UniProtKB/TrEMBL annotation, chain A:
Residues 1-20 form the signal peptide. InterPro entries: PIG-T (IPR007245). It holds the Pfam family Gpi16. Keywords: Membrane, Signal, Transmembrane, Transmembrane helix. It comes from the Eukaryota. This is Gpi16 subunit, GPI transamidase component. The chain crosses the membrane at residues 500-521.
UniProtKB/TrEMBL annotation, chain B:
The chain crosses the membrane at residues 80-98, 118-137, 143-163, 175-193, 216-237, 244-261, 267-288, 295-312, 342-359, 371-393. Keywords: Endoplasmic reticulum, GPI-anchor biosynthesis, Membrane, Transmembrane, Transmembrane helix. Pathway: Glycolipid biosynthesis; glycosylphosphatidylinositol-anchor biosynthesis. It is found in: Endoplasmic reticulum membrane. GO terms for biological process: attachment of GPI anchor to protein; GPI anchor biosynthetic process. Pfam families: PIG-U. It comes from Phlebiopsis gigantea (strain 11061_1 CR5-6). The keyword Membrane applies. The keyword Cell cycle does not apply. It is a multi-pass membrane protein. This is PIG-U-domain-containing protein. Its main location: endoplasmic reticulum. It comes from the Eukaryota.
Length: 542, 415
C-alpha cells in the first residue's frame, strides 16, 4: 500500500516537475467575417488562430540532435511536429476551388486565392539537412496530413519567387539566412477529405464555436471555396498558426423567391449552439453594405457602427443565427455594367492563344482602375510545360508599343523534365488605362510516360501573381497579392498504344537500311554470264 | 549558261527569296529546323545572353556559344542581316561545291558543269527552305562543304579546321574525320571506275591519320575552350553536345529518334540511346575501307547515312546528300532505282508538312500520321543511300569491261 502511494506520488511529482520545466502559454482566437457583395453573393471568411506565446521556430542546425519536448494543449500537435521536424519558420498552404472575382468581391481576407494547391515556406539554411530535402519532407508530411496530392509539388514545380512572397511574420535571427520555396498545383481540388483533417486541428473541432458552421455540404457547394494554413513567427508574440476557410455563397441561388436575404442557417445549414470554451475571443463581424437598405435582424449585435456589426459568440444565450434582409427588395437584380468604384486596383486577364500544339501566344491584359500610375510586380512560376520566348515579349499601351513599361527583375529559364521557369517583372501601369503584354510560347513534347491518364484534357498551368505596389488602406497598409485564373494548355500527345509498334517499326527500318548497306559493302561482286546455254555455268570472280 | 553570269544570278535570286514576305510559321517548322538549329531559339539565347541570364541554364537554347558571341558582337541579328548572312553562307557552300568539282576534274578554270552544280545546291528545296527558315544547319552544311573543298585542294589544316567548326556546331560531324582526313592525303580524282588500294602502307596510314586526328582534336579543343570562355563555364557542353546523346527535346523532326524515344519505356531509354549513338559510329570505317580508291564518295555516302540516322536531322541534311550527288555523274547510269527514290521523296515531302499540320495544327490527325510519314522519308533516304553505294561499287566492276558487247553478256550480282 505504502509503495503504491509512493509510486503515485512519484508520478505526480514527476509530472509536476516536467510541466514546471515547460509551461507554454497558448491562446486561441476565432473569427468569422461575413461580407455581402454587390452581386448578391456573401463572402464568409473563417479564421482560427492559435498562438504559442514566446515560441520560437527550430534552428535547422539542431536537426540532428533530439528536439526539446513540445507540449501543446491548443496548438495542433500534428502540424507542430511537422514544423519542428523540418525547422520551418513560416508556412502557407492553400487549397482552393473556383475563380476569385476581384472586381465584384474585392480583395479577399486571405491573399492566397489561386485555384488549386499552393504551398510556400521560408526556411533557414544550415544544419545537417538541406533546405530542399526539408522542403520535400514538408510537402510529403502535409500531403499525408491534409489528404492532398501535395507530394507532386516536386522540383518540377518548385521555385523561389522571393520578390512576391515576402515573409508575413518575422524571421528569427539565426546565423544563417532564410530561403523561400514555393510551388503550385493548379489541378488539385479541395474537398471534404481535406476539410476533415483540417477540422481535427482545431481545439473544439467542429463541435462548438464558430467552427460548428463548417458544414462540408454547404461549403463545397459555394461558388468559391478554399482553405488555408498559415504559420508565422512574430518576434514579440510567438508562433502563430492561422487556419482559414473562405467561401463565397450565392444566397440568390438557394432562395426560391430570388431574394438575396441570408442567414447563418441559410448559408451553412447550421447555427451556433454553444461557444468554444477555450477561445480567448470568438467574434462574428458582419460588414454592413452602405449603398443598399439592408438590415440585420435578430439577435442584436454586441457592438455595431455604420460599417460593421460585431457578435461576441462567447456571450451566447441559446443559438446564434445572424441574418441580413433587404426588406425593400422584392427580388434581386444583378447589377449590370461596371461598378462606379472598383473594389480592386486593377483587373487582369491572362489567356493562351493559338491553336497549334507546338507554339502559342500568351497574352496578359491588365487594366489599372486607379486615377494614378500604379507599379505592380508580375510573377510567372511556369512549369516547363509552357516555355517562354522572352525575346518576343512586347508591351502595348493604347495601341502604342511601350516596352519601357516592363522591366525584368529576374528570369530562370525552365529545364525540360526538371525545373520550372521563374519570371519576375515589374510593370508600370499608366493611370486608368489598359496594358497588353504578349509573348510567344513553346509547347514542349513529352515522353509518353509523362502524360497524365487523361492526356487529351491538357495541363493546368499555375496562376500568375501580381502585386500592386500601392498600399491598401483597408488592409492596414499591407501589400496585396492578386492571382489570375489558371490556364489550360493542350500539349501534343503521342499514341499511347504504340510503344511496341514504334520500337518494332523503327528498328525494322534501321535494320533494313543498315542491312542493305552492310550487304553491299561486304558481299563479293560476281559477274554471271548471260550467254545461253553454257556447257557449265561460268562464274568469274571479280 | 556561263558560270560568271549564272552564279551571281543565282545568289541574287536567293537573296530576293530571302527578302520575300515569307510566312512566319516557316521559322517554327519542325521539318526545316530542329531544337539544335532553330532560329527563334537562337534569338532567345541571344536575348538571355544580353540580359545577363546564362542561356545554358535552361533547356530552350542549344546552339553553340560561338554563334552566341558572333551574333551578339560582330553580326547583330535582325531580319535584314539574317537574310544576308544565310544567303552568304549558302553561296559559300555552293562555291565550295563548284571548286570541289573542279578539283575532282583536275580543271583550273571553269567547266561546263559549274552552273549546274551551283544551281543544284542553291535551288535545292531541301537546302533552300531550311535556309529561308534561318536554320543554323545551313552553317553546318557550309562548314562541311568548305572542309571537303580544302581537302580536295590538299589544304589539310584548313580542311581540318573547318571540320572542327562543323563538329563544334553539330557533334555528329566528327564521323566525317576518317574519310576527310584520308581525302586530304589522296587524290580527289575519280577512281570509282578503276578501284585501287590506298597508296600507303598500313603503318603510314596509322601515322598520318594519327597526326591529322591530333591536329583536328587540337582545333576542336581550341574551339571548345573559346566556347567555354564565352559561355562562362562548361554548362554549354551538356546542353549542346550532350543533347545529341540524351535527346532531351522530343520535338518531332524527319528523323527516326524522336518518336522512338517518346514512346520508349523509361528503363530502356539509356540502353537504346547508347545503341542509336553507337550505330552511327559503325559506318565511317567500313565505308573508308570499301571506297579507299575514292574517299570523296565515302564522304558523300556518309552524308546520306547521317541525314537518315542522326539524332536531330532536318531536311537540310538530306539536301546536302542530294546536292552532293551532282559531283558523281559517272555513277548515274548504274543507279538501280533513281525514279522510285525520287517518287518516295516527293511523296514524303508532301506527306510530312501535311501530316504535321493534321496532328499539331488542326488536331484532326494523331502522332502516328506524322510518324508514318517520317518512316516513308526514312525509306526514301535508305533507298537513296543504298542505291548510291550500289552505283559507286558497280562503277568499279563495269569499268573493267572493255566494250558494250561484253556488258551485254554479263550480269553483275553479289554472291
Amino acid at each position: 500500500m505504502t509503495t503504491r502511494v509512493l509510486y503515485v506520488l512519484a508520478i505526480v511529482f514527476g509530472l509536476h516537475l516536467c510541466c514546471a520545466a515547460k509551461t507554454v502559454e497558448e491562446r486561441f482566437y476565432e473569427q468569422l467575417v461575413l461580407k455581402p457583395n454587390h452581386d448578391g453573393t456573401v463572402t464568409s471568411s473563417f479564421s482560427f488562430t492559435t498562438l504559442i506565446k514566446d515560441g520560437r521556430p527550430r534552428d535547422p542546425r539542431t536537426l540532428g540532435k533530439e528536439d526539446e519536448s513540445q507540449h501543446y494543449t491548443l496548438f495542433p500537435l500534428a502540424l507542430g511536429q511537422i514544423l519542428r521536424d523540418n525547422a520551418i519558420t513560416e508556412l502557407h498552404l492553400s487549397l482552393n476551388a473556383g475563380k476569385w472575382d476581384y472586381l465584384n468581391w474585392g480583395y479577399p481576407e486571405e491573399d492566397g486565392v489561386g485555384t488549386g494547391a499552393e504551398l510556400w515556406a521560408w526556411m533557414a539554411e544550415g544544419g545537417p539537412v538541406t533546405v530542399d530535402e526539408r522542403w520535400g519532407n514538408l510537402r510529403n508530411a502535409l500531403a499525408g496530413l491534409f489528404c492532398a496530392s501535395l507530394g507532386s509539388l516536386d522540383e518540377q514545380r518548385t521555385t523561389s519567387p522571393a520578390l512576391t512572397f515576402q515573409p508575413e511574420g518575422d524571421l528569427p535571427a539565426f546565423s544563417s539566412s532564410h530561403q523561400l520555396r514555393h510551388a503550385t498545383l493548379p489541378s488539385e481540388h479541395v474537398c471534404t477529405e481535406n476539410l476533415t483533417p483540417f477540422l481535427k486541428l482545431l481545439p473544439c473541432k467542429s463541435l462548438s464555436g464558430i467552427a460548428s458552421l463548417l458544414n462540408p455540404h454547404r461549403l463545397f457547394d459555394a461558388d468559391w471555396h478554399g482553405m488555408g494554413v498559415h504559420v508565422r513567427f512574430l518576434d514579440h508574440a510567438g508562433i502563430e498558426v492561422r487556419l482559414s476557410f473562405q467561401a463565397v455563397h450565392n444566397p440568390v441561388r438557394y432562395a426560391s423567391d430570388n431574394r438575396r436575404d441570408w442567414s447563418l442557417r441559410s448559408l451553412f445549414d447550421h447555427t451556433i449552439e454553444q461557444s468554444c470554451p477555450v477561445a480567448s475571443s470568438s467574434q462574428i463581424r458582419v460588414d454592413l453594405p452602405r449603398s443598399t437598405a439592408a438590415i440585420i435582424t435578430e439577435p442584436e449585435p454586441t457592438a455595431r457602427d455604420d460599417a460593421v456589426a460585431v457578435y461576441d459568440v462567447r456571450q451566447l444565450n441559446g443559438s446564434l443565427n445572424v441574418a441580413m434582409r433587404w426588406p425593400d427588395e422584392t427580388s434581386f437584380e444583378y447589377p449590370l455594367g461596371a461598378s462606379s468604384s472598383p473594389l480592386a486596383h486593377m483587373t487582369v486577364r491572362r489567356t493562351l492563344k493559338g491553336s497549334d500544339q507546338y507554339k502559342g501566344h500568351l497574352s496578359v491584359v491588365i487594366t489599372n482602375h486607379l486615377m494614378s500610375e500604379l507599379q505592380t510586380s508580375y510573377l510567372e512560376t511556369m512549369p516547363w510545360l509552357l516555355q517562354f520566348y522572352l525575346h518576343s515579349l512586347r508591351v502595348e499601351h493604347d495601341g502604342v508599343s511601350r516596352d519601357d513599361l516592363v522591366s525584368i527583375v529576374s528570369y530562370t529559364p525552365p529545364v525540360p523534365h526538371a525545373r520550372p521557369a521563374l519570371l519576375q517583372t515589374l510593370l508600370t501601369l499608366p493611370p486608368n488605362s489598359t496594358l497588353r503584354l504578349t509573348m510567344d510560347v513553346v509547347k514542349p513534347f513529352l515522353r509518353y510516360t509523362e502524360h497524365p491518364p487523361d492526356a487529351q484534357r491538357g495541363w493546368d498551368l499555375p496562376p500568375a501573381v501580381l502585386m500592386p505596389l500601392a498600399r491598401d488602406a483597408s488592409a492596414g497598409g499591407r501589400v496585396r497579392r492578386v492571382y489570375t485564373p489558371v490556364l489550360l494548355v493542350d500539349l501534343a500527345t503521342p499514341d499511347f498504344s504504340m510503344p511496341y509498334n514504334v520500337i518494332i517499326m523503327s528498328c525494322t527500318l534501321i535494320a533494313l537500311i543498315f542491312g542493305s548497306v552492310f550487304n553491299l559493302l561486304t558481299r563479293k561482286f560476281v559477274a554471271v554470264s548471260l550467254r545461253p546455254p553454257p556447257p557449265a555455268q561460268r562464274v568469274e570472280h571479280m | 549558261m556561263d558560270y560568271d553570269v549564272a552564279f551571281p544570278g543565282l545568289i541574287v535570286t536567293r537573296l530576293l527569296l530571302a527578302f520575300a514576305p515569307l510566312p512566319d510559321s516557316l521559322i517554327h517548322d519542325h521539318q526545316l529546323s530542329t531544337p539544335l538549329t532553330s532560329y527563334p531559339r537562337l534569338l532567345e539565347g541571344l536575348y538571355l545572353f544580353r540580359h545577363g541570364v546564362d542561356p545554358y541554364s535552361g533547356g530552350l537554347f542549344r546552339h553553340s556559344p560561338l554563334l552566341l558571341s558572333l551574333f551578339s558582337t560582330a553580326l547583330p541579328l535582325n531580319r535584314f542581316t539574317a537574310a544576308l548572312i544565310w544567303t552568304a553562307s549558302d553561296a559559300a557552300a555552293a562555291w565550295a561545291l563548284v571548286h570541289t568539282w573542279r578539283a575532282r576534274q583536275q580543271v583550273k578554270g571553269k567547266t561546263s558543269r559549274d552552273s549546274l552544280i551551283a544551281a543544284v545546291y542553291l535551288l535545292n528545296p531541301y537546302i533552300l527552305l531550311p535556309s529561308l527558315a534561318l536554320s543554323t544547319s545551313s552553317f553546318e552544311n557550309t562548314a562541311l562543304l568548305l572542309s571537303v573543298m580544302f581537302a580536295v585542294q590538299a589544304q589539310t589544316s584548313l580542311s581540318l579546321l573547318l571540320l572542327a567548326i562543323g563538329t563544334h556546331l553539330a557533334l555528329t560531324s566528327w564521323l566525317y574525320l576518317p574519310p576527310l582526313a584520308l581525302l586530304c592525303l589522296t587524290t580527289p580524282v575519280s577512281y570509282l571506275a578503276s578501284p585501287r588500294p590506298l597508296p600507303f602502307s598500313s603503318n603510314e596510314i596509322t601515322r598520318k591519320l594519327g597526326t591529322l586526328a591530333t591536329e583536328y582534336s587540337a582545333y576542336l579543343l581550341a574551339l571548345a575552350g573559346a566556347a567555354t570562355i564565352v559561355a562562362g563555364g562548361v554548362g554549354w557542353l551538356d546542353k549542346t553536345w550532350g543533347a545529341v546523346f540524351t535527346l532531351p527535346d522530343l520535338s518531332p523532326n524527319v528523323g527516326l529518334w524522336w518518336y522512338f524515344f517518346t514512346e520508349m519505356f523509361d528503363h530502356f531509354r539509356p540502353f537504346f540511346l547508347m545503341v542509336f549513338s553507337i550505330h552511327l559510329a559503325v559506318y565511317p570505317i567500313p565505308l573508308v575501307v570499301k571506297f579507299q580508291h575514292d574517299l570523296l564518295y565515302a564522304v558523300y555516302i556518309l552524308t546520306g547515312i547521317l541525314a537518315t540516322f542522326k539524332p536531330y536531322p532536318s531536311i537540310a541534311d538530306a539536301g546536302l546528300f542530294v546536292s552532293m550527288s551532282v559531283l558523281f555523274p559517272e555513277t548515274y547510269q548504274y543507279l538501280r532505282t533513281p525514279f522510285p527514290t525520287f517518287l518516295i521523296h516527293l511523296h514524303s515531302s508532301l506527306l510530312l508538312p501535311l501530316f504535321h499540320h493534321l496532328w499539331l495544327g488542326s488536331g484532326t490527325g494523331n502522332a502516328n500520321f506524322f510518324y508514318a510519314s517520317t518512316l516513308v522519308w526514312g525509306i526514301g533516304m535508305g533507298l537513296g543511300v543504298g542505291d548510291a553505294v550500289w552505283a559507286g561499287l558497280l562503277t568499279g566492276i563495269k569499268g573493267r569491261f572493255k566494250n558494250d558487247a561484253d556488258e551485254q553478256e554479263w550480269e553483275i550480282t553479289q554472291e
